[in-house]
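We treat protein structure as text, and this decision shapes the records that our systems exchange. Because each token names a local backbone shape, the row as a whole describes the fold. For reference, a complete record is included directly beneath this paragraph.
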Amino acid sequence: RMETDCNPMELPDNTGFEEDSDYTDFEGTEVKDMRLEAEAVVNDVLFAVSNMFVSKTLPCAEDVAYINVETRERNRYCLELTEAGLRVVAYDFDKTDDRLQTPYHETVYSLLDSLSPAYREVFGNALLQRLEALKKESQS
């Protein structure tokens, strides 16, 4: 588990450090319930996997949330999302296996990239299409 210099629970809501704060997550929003962060992760990459949703049976808290993902290869994983990042905690939905010692990934992109060649292909194609669209826009 990654150590942090402060406990988000100890921070007042109006710290005034909106932009440059050490107390903000990597997207620049104040640290809040991890469930909201998990929903954002799901919305970001849902197009590139078969199924993905925040677990409704495993407990979400301010510091942890669980995401179920099924890759296009039909492999199922339960992911743990914490301030340390994302990691696989089980090879099925809504489960955790304490014996699994999987590495943390800073982003959902790098985690899925390591798990699913089909994700990598779909995500890469989407990126190429977006770049082509931007190129056309800049030429018109």
The helical segments are 34-45, 108-115, 117-139. The two ends are 50 Å apart (CA to CA).
